[in-house]
Design brief:
Largest sheet: none
Structural class: mainly alpha
Oligomer: single chain
CATH architecture: Orthogonal Bundle
Shape: globular
Order of helices and strands: HHHHHH
Distance between the termini: 46 Å
Number of helices: 6
Number of strands: 0
GO molecular function: DNA binding
Strand content: under 5%
CATH class: Mainly Alpha
CATH superfamily: lambda repressor-like DNA-binding domains
Organism: Arthrobacter agilis
Domain HTH cro/C1-type: 21-74
Helix content: 55-70%
Protein name: Transcriptional regulator
Radius of gyration: 13 Å
Length: 98
């Protein structure tokens, strides 16, 4: 099977997803988070670094669940224009703090 190259938009969404997961994970260890989500630490590392820009939905759902993120928040952040990213980061920090 030949994989088509990712579009710049897909790469950007993958980077936003990784940044969101890193922020949500905060001080929690990558190993603990990955094991609790049922994924390998290497998979989580690749997603967080943006190297896996289009991870499988069940993988993201499991990680989001472990981190206490709603899938609506994840979807909203990764699909917004770049200028809205900083506002979502502030909103996400406020949600995580409460």
């Amino acid at each position: 099977m030949v994989r088509l190259p990712l579009t710049p938009g897909e790469v950007e969404r993958g980077q936003r997803l990784g940044a969101l997961l890193r922020r949500a994970r905060a001080e929690r260890s990558m190993l603990e988070t990955a094991l609790d989500a049922g994924v390998s630490p290497e998979t989580l590392r690749k997603i967080e670094s943006g190297r896996v820009a289009t991870p499988a939905f069940p993988t993201i759902a499991a990680i989001a669940d472990v981190l206490g993120l709603s899938l609506d928040v994840v979807w909203a952040e990764i699909n917004q224009p770049e200028r809205d990213v900083e506002q979502a980061r502030r909103d996400g920090r406020e949600r995580l703090a409460s």
